[in-house]
Amino acid sequence: MKLYNTLTRQQDEVKPLLPPAISIYTCGPTVYDYLHIGNWFNYVRMDTLIRALQANGFTTNWVMNITDVGHLVSDADDGEDKLEKGARREGKTAWEVAEYYTADFLEAMQLLSIQTPDHIVKATDHIAEQITLIQRLEANGYTYVIDDGVYFDTSKFEGYAAFARLDLEEQQAGARISVNDQKRNQSDFALWKFSPVDSKRDMEWDSPFGGDRKGFPGWHIECSAMSMKYLGESFDIHTGGIDHIPVHHTNEIAQSEAATGQRFANYWMHSNHVMVNGEKISKSLGNGIRLQEIIAQGISAQATRLNILESHYRSQSKFSWDGLEAANNRLKHWQQVACLALQPQSNIPASEEQLITAEIAAATTDITAALFDDLNTPLMLSRLDEAFSIIEKQLLSPPTAQQFATLLTYIHTVLGIDLLVDIVAPNADDMKLMDRRRAARQAKEWDISDKLRYELANAGFGIRDLPSGATLWFKL
Ligand SMILES: [Zn+2]
Predict the structure, then answer these.
(1) With respect to CATH, is domain 291-415 assigned 3.10.110.10?
(2) Directed axis angle between helix 37-55 and helix 398-415, to 10°?
(3) Each residue of 220-245: pLDDT tens digit?
(4) pTM
C-alpha cells in the first residue's frame, strides 16, 4: 500500500515498525465550538486511511487527541486560550465547554460512520506526561524560561526548518514587532505557559516551572506526550490537516526528537484544505457549515460522507450544496441497485451469470487497487458507478446475488457507506400488490396497474418492469 508522505514528499510503501501492527496518531479537534464541514472532510479522510490499512491486513492502533486546553487564538503563543474564550462566550466554565463539544464531536463521528479510535485522549488527562516531557527537554538543554512561560529554543534543534521547508531567516526578518520580545527566535514556541497574574483561569495546574505560579501546557506538547504514551517514542503514521505542517507538526517533531533522539513518526499524512465559494473554510471566516445544518436540509450523513469521498484527500476540494445534492442522488441510485442483491431470480442464462461474476470480481480488484494507491477514493467511486451500471441491467441468479451482497459488504467496510442500511424487503402485502399489478399489466388494465404502482410507492417501493415481464422493486 502506498501513501504520500509529507516527510519525503513522495509516495512511500507503507512499512510499519512492527508488522502487522501499525500505529497511527491523528490530531483531533479543539473542543471550544462546533466542528464545520471542512473539519469533517479531514476526519472522514483519516477514517478512510484506517479502513485502508485494515483492508491491507494491518492491525491498527489509532490514537486521536482532544485538545481541551492550551490552544491559543494565535499560533504565535499569544492571545486567549480558545477554551477560556468559549467559556466566556457561553457563560460556562472551560470544563463544561470542553465536555459539551467533545460529546457533540463524538456523536457526529458516529453519524458519519467514522470508526472510534482505539484511544481518544484528552490533553487535560495527561498533564503529568506533558510536564515530564518538558523536563526531559529541559535536561537536554532545549528550553528557556521567560516571563510568560517555558519555551523551546528552535535554534538548538538542527533541521527545525526541514519538515515544512521553512525559510527561517525570512520568517525572522518578516516578523512584525513581536508581541513577545523575550523570545529568542521568532519560531520558538511555548511548552508551558504561566497563568496570568491578573486573572484566574478555569484550567490551571501546579508544575515544577515558574515557582508557585500555576500554569497550563502549550498546544503542541500534548500531541508529543500522548502519542509517545500510547504508541511509543517512534511510531508509524501521524496525520492531520495541511495547515498543521508549518507550525504544529514542525514543533511536534522538534520537541519529540529533541527529547528522545529518535525519529518521531515515519509517515506524515495531511488532508488538504476545503474551499467554499473560493475561500478556505474556517471558523474565523464564519463560512463553516455544521453537519447538523446539512442533515436538517434533508441530506443524510451518509450522503455527506459520500460527497467527502468524491475528492482526493490531497487535492484542494470544493464544498457546495450542489455537490452535496449530487452525492445524495448518487447514493440513492446506488441504494436502488443494491436492492437487486435481495432479489435473486431463477433461470438466468449462464453467460449472463458469468458476465456479472466477472464484473464483480474486477470491480473488487480495481477499487482495492485504487484504495491502496494513496487512497484514491474518487477513482473507487467512478469504478463503482461503472460496475453498478452493468449490474443494474442484469438479473441476478442466487449465486451472483450473493456475490453482489459480498461486494456491498466490502464497500461498507472500506468506504464506510452502507448501501443496504434501512432497506427492508417488501412484506407479504407488498408482494401481493406486485403480483396484482403484474396481472393487471398482462391484462393491459393500465389504470389498475398505475393505481397499484401508486400504492406501492406509498409503501416505499419503486417498480422496474423488465422486458421479460418480471418486476423488480427498489426502495424509494
Ligand atoms: Zn497535534
Answers:
(1) no
(2) 120
(3) 999 999 999 999 999 999 999 999 99
(4) 0.94
